[in-house]
Amino acid sequence: ASKTSSASMFAADSESAGASLALRVSMKPKALIEKIAEDLLATFEKAPLLDPYDIYQHLMDYWAETMQDDCYLIAGDGWVKAA
User: Fold this and answer.
1) What is the pTM of this model?
2) How far apart, in Å, are the Cα atoms of 35 and each of 19, 30, 49?
3) What is the distance between the alpha carbons of residues 64 and 68, in angstroms, rounded to a whole number?
4) Which of 3, 15, 66, 82 is the S-S candidate for 73 at Cβ 3.0 to 4.6 Å?
5) 60 neighbors 40 (Cβ within 8 angstroms)
6) Interacting residues of 44 by C-beta distance below 8 A, sequence separation 6+
7) pLDDT tens string for the chain (83 positions)?
């Protein structure tokens, strides 16, 4: 089970990494976090020792505290100006 969970988590990380590469001017940050959150829930719902909603809540807390502002800056100004 742990090999399967690790493989699933790696796949989810790869998909989310691909989504983060989509950060660009005119992107839709709300759609981005929705996609990442749904992927996260789907990945961890099969993990026997983890509550997927606890993991989801950590993501959403991080989104609200840090990531959201960064994504909206990138969406509005691009990588160079946002940095």
Assistant:
1) 0.63
2) 8, 9, 23
3) 6
4) 82
5) no
6) 9, 50, 52, 55
7) 444 444 444 455 545 555 555 677 777 889 889 999 999 888 888 888 888 889 999 999 999 999 999 888 888 888 777 66
